[in-house]
From TrEMBL:
Name the record gives this protein: Solute carrier family 35 member A1
UniProt keyword Transmembrane helix, yes or no: yes
Keyword Transmembrane assigned: yes
Annotated organism of origin: Strix occidentalis caurina
InterPro entries in the record: EmrE-like, Nuc_sug_transpt
Membrane topology: Multi-pass membrane protein
A molecular function (GO) term: pyrimidine nucleotide-sugar transmembrane transporter activity
């Protein structure tokens, strides 16, 4: 059973990595090749809707009949406003994170933003330790910070000189990036804790979260692009490629929840980092992107950190009598 469980976890991590990498490449294509740009806020909203319908479909297959599906939805979704409110927290926190990230990018140099925003990786590890009462070995902490540095180098872009002088407030930028980093770590680990603290179906939890996600993203559409959406239409600029990107984002979102359910948020971070490396390599082949020394070094650090984090570690929470005896013998020999 343990081998099957391990294979399932590896399968989920592999699929999530490949889907995320394909999504990044496809998104880059729609933003560079497509002539008419669509509204990204509406695409995010449609993604939440598709994830909701996919989750309902999977729950229907899980329950086995339409009657059981309706009963499950009545009991766990529409008849449980407390649970709905509980699952609205990640959606609201992620919305705050995205806004704070935008504020930070507007008030910090791009290089400073790239470095500081990757602190969300060790922040996620810290939230995992504090909120889920887990322990990480020194080697695992080292690999987490190595991953942080590797992702920073992979995404590093040299600052370009510009004649346009933009007034920036560094203190506001650093404050916003701190809030964004904390939101990223907290929201992910909070969702993981909710998933693993009860026997409620993963797909019920997804439905609860996606309902609130739709409301949050609709509000984002209204606030960011409301006037233009009313003028040009909700699906302005949508092509087959855009729909493909949305589909990939939806499938990736579902696999992300599966990865969080059966592994943890730290492994999700390692998978996302691997996806960044794969998508960049694919972009070299498809778009002629130039590989730099910083990318090569960063990709190497990402690969080493994944290997180090995955190394088996000894369980030091329990002391076996045989191990105690051997330890005393080793001390005596020393």
């Amino acid at each position: 059973c343990k081998n099957v469980s391990l294979l399932f976890k590896l399968y989920c991590l592999t699929v999530m990595t490949l889907v995320a990498a394909t999504y990044t490449v496809a998104l880059r294509y729609t933003r560079t090749v497509e002539t008419e740009l669509y509204f990204s806020t509406t695409a995010v909203c449609i993604t939440e809707v598709i994830k909701l319908f996919l989750s309902v479909g999977i729950l229907a297959k899980e329950t086995g009949s339409l009657a059981r599906l309706i009963t499950s939805l009545k009991e766990n979704v529409f008849g449980s406003p407390t649970e709905l409110l509980k699952l609205s927290v990640p959606s609201l926190v992620y919305a705050l994170q995205n806004n704070m990230a935008f504020v930070a990018l507007s008030n910090l140099d791009a290089a400073v933003y790239q470095v500081t925003y990757q602190l969300k990786i060790p922040c996620t590890a810290l939230c995992t330790v504090l909120m889920l009462n887990r322990t990480l070995s020194k080697l695992q902490w080292f690999s987490v910070f190595m991953l942080c540095g590797g992702v920073t180098l992979v995404q590093w872009k040299p600052a370009q000189a510009t004649k346009v002088q933009v007034e920036q407030n560094p203190w506001l930028g650093f404050g916003a990036i701190a809030v964004a980093v904390l939101c990223s770590g907290f929201a992910g680990v909070y969702f993981e804790k909710v998933l693993k603290s009860s026997d409620t179906s993963l797909w019920v939890r997804n439905i609860q979260m996606y309902l609130s996600g739709i409301a949050v993203t609709l509000f984002g559409v209204y606030m960011s692009d409301g006037a233009q959406v009313l003028e040009k239409g909700f699906f302005y600029g949508y092509t087959y490629y855009v729909w493909f990107v949305i589909f990939l984002a939806s499938v990736g979102g579902l696999y992300t929840s599966v990865v969080v359910k059966y592994t943890d948020n730290i492994m999700k971070g390692f998978s996302a980092a691997a996806a960044i490396v794969l998508s960049t390599v694919a972009s070299v082949i498809l778009f002629g992107l130039q590989i730099t020394v910083t990318f090569s070094l960063g990709a190497l650090l990402v690969c080493i950190s994944i290997y180090l984090y995955g190394l088996p570690r000894q369980d030091t929470t329990k002391i076996q009598p045989s191990e105690t005896k051997s330890s005393k013998e080793r001390l005596a020999t020393v």
